[in-house]
Amino acid sequence: MSEGKALAYVTVLGNPLEATYAAATGPRFTIGRSQANDLCIPHDTAISRLHCELRSQGDRLILVDLGSANGTYLNGMRVSAETELAVPCWLMLGRTRLGLFANPDNEPGTTAFEEQLYSSQGSIVVPPSSVFQSREEALLVVDIVGSSALVARNETQLIKIVAVLGQALERDLRQETQPFLKCTGDGFLACFGSADSALRGAARIRAQAARAMDVPLCSSVALHWGETRHTADGDRGGRDVHAVFALEALRHDQPAWMRWAAGRGDSLIVMSEAFHARLGDVLAAQTRDLGYHTLRGLPGEVRLFRWEGSEPIEG
Q1: Whole-prediction pTM
Q2: 36 vs 7, 95, 262, CA distance in Å?
């Protein structure tokens, strides 16, 4: 980047307490935990001191990982080499998501920008609507609770856990006609054709992982039913994808939910009313009404339920 010219503007997404806005100018723009960076993110311990940088090559914007411990993800995919960026896009560093956009008149963190750019707390940039096909699906998001602490103790443990979770979900998706699975760094987004199949997959995650792991797994799973838009390259986007990530993130505001799951030695599995309404009677009977909550991306309040059945479940 030439001095004074910004090829991108950077904002921290999804957390108003960490609202940050920076113009990426100069030939190099570094991001990391150290105060020496152009953009310093000090509170995320999963971010390396010198994590990644943006470089200019003429009018091209290049992303380079600087040998970070946990990797740099572009639109949900880990970068392994110098990668050209097309804005708008989003990056994930540790547990922090950054939005990159070109228009300096956009206020960072606005609803319009976030809905255009990304699915909250996680995964997909939405390209022009002309490339989409729409379909109603059961959406599953699983997140590893305490992944930063795992990294601090032994980063290879987190890598192994993510691999095991991915393999478990892949097995459950084999019978789907349009399976979808995407790693979000320390978790996954998966799409199923039915609510029953998605819940069975969610309930088996912990049991399957426990057989392969030598450390306890604490995970949080969100389930939602809604419309997804399919891109030409098979990705998923739309408001309901946004909403399922917001549903998983709600556990941060509801510590009693995680205490309940920990007391059972179990994963937390929470679902929206839209998902619950599509469950068969046997599975629906094993849930508890959690009342109404506000979910970013959906209008009004949404009635939520918690899975309280036993695992694994057959089907």
Answers
A1: 0.59
A2: 21, 20, 39
